[in-house]
Write a structure and sequence with these properties.
By secondary structure, this protein is α+β, with helices and mostly antiparallel strands. It has a domain at 8-140 and 232-279: Nucleotidyltransferase, domain 5, CATH 3.30.420.590. It is 39% helix and 21% strand. The protein has helices at 8-21, 109-127, 139-148, 158-170, 197-205, 212-232, 236-246, 256-263, 300-312, 321-334, and strands at residues 50-58, 71-80, 85-91, 96-98, 104-106, 133-138, 152-156, 191-195, 250-252, 270-277, 283-287, 293-297. The strands form four sheets. The protein has a six-stranded mixed beta sheet with strand order 9-6-1-2-3-10, with helices on both faces. Helix 1 (8-21) crosses helix 7 (236-246) and helix 5 packs antiparallel against helix 6. The two termini are 26 Å apart.
């Protein structure tokens, strides 16, 4: 399975900047009236003053970012509109959840089944969130973002080199759509070094070392922060080139007004925390029927409590009746 890093703030900023450049990006509109938000969430005072946006990395080499493609990277970016603080939480793609249609399986199937609309509903239903906006980026976009920024600084470990190069060799040319053979630059030594777009994307895919998929998500967040650091120090011309290269590979339902409302404070945003859902203390891995090997929240309800503490500093959050129902179903299906 191919996974890509959602360069969350870089991509979000690029999309917002598109308004000023009057550049067309893909619009896969969702009907906000059809997005599910659990009943008790809309009246949650602690969530007021935050903008929550779903970020999807899509395994699509033809730049079709709608349904039919699995979201191999899923993140939520929560922006505190008063302070500019940003918290980002990965949702592990193999997490066993309600897919937004009362069917249960690995959560990345929601995007494939119903596009961003169902994927957003899946996040809202299982996590008691109030998301209505999304940004999606495809395979080519990630490589182009990193190359336009001149690469990213990553500390590559000795045990990662073989897997990084193997993943490069298994990837496809963005121009010919053919499998690569020797048309890539191998990483030959460990240590802090500049990785190009192909190398960094391959780095994000590594899951064969200790830590498996959880370590992979950690690598993804490492690349995220490296991209953000590079973007902050980039020239206007570099950022403009990044914008031009990535926009054809991006889709969103943010309208111009919403983009500009975020753009005006973009320079003050600061990532203050990142994490993964389910949280390390409340998850196991195991086989669940036809779904196969899954990340199992123990329990979903307890993880939602931790998520609201992480995002909104709610010390004693009470999950909605809907989440409690989904949590009971997950526990019943998994025996956890």
């Amino acid at each position: 399975m191919f996974t890509i890093e959602m360069v969350a703030l870089v991509v979000l900023g690029v999309v917002l900047w598109a308004v000023l450049k009057q550049t067309t990006i893909q619009k896969i509109n969702v009907n906000e009236e059809d997005i599910v938000i659990n009943d008790t969430v809309e009246n949650n005072v602690a969530m007021k003053g935050y903008r929550n946006i779903a970020l999807f990395g899509i395994d699509a080499r033809d730049d079709n970012l709608g349904k039919g493609n699995r979201s191999d990277t899923i993140m939520i970016a929560s922006i505190n509109l008063d302070t500019g603080e940003v918290k980002i939480c990965s949702v592990y793609r193999d997490t066993y959840m309600n897919l937004g249609n009362d069917k249960y399986s690995k959560c990345n199937a929601a995007y494939a089944n119903g596009g961003p609309e169902q994927a957003i509903s899946m996040l809202n239903m299982n996590l008691d969130m109030n998301i209505t906006n999304y940004v999606s980026i495809g395979f080519n976009g990630l490589i182009d973002v990193i190359n336009s920024l001149g690469g990213v600084e990553i500390d590559v470990k000795e045990e990662e080199i073989k897997h990084l190069n193997n993943y490069q060799a298994s990837m496809y040319s963005t121009e010919t759509k053919e499998r690569l053979t020797d048309d890539y630059v191998k990483v030959t030594k460990p240590g802090l070094q500049t990785l190009n777009g192909m190398q960094a994307t391959a780095y994000c895919r590594i899951r064969a070392t200790a830590g498996d998929d959880f370590k992979r998500a950690e690598r993804q967040r490492t690349v995220l922060l490296a991209c953000l650091a590079k973007a902050r120090s980039a020239s206007v011309s570099t950022l403009s080139a990044t914008l031009d290269s990535v926009l054809p590979h991006v889709a969103t339902n943010l309208d111009s007004g919403e983009m500009l409302s975020v753009l005006k404070d973009l320079a003050s945003y600061e990532v203050v925390a990142t994490d993964g859902f389910p949280f390390e203390t409340n998850r196991v891995t195991g086989k669940v029927g036809k779904a196969g090997s899954c990340v199992i929240p123990t329990s979903l309800e307890d993880n939602v409590v931790l998520l609201h503490k992480f995002f909104f500093a709610q010390e004693e959050y009470t999950p909605s009746p809907s989440v409690k129902s989904y949590s009971a179903k997950v526990s019943s299906d998994t025996g956890r």
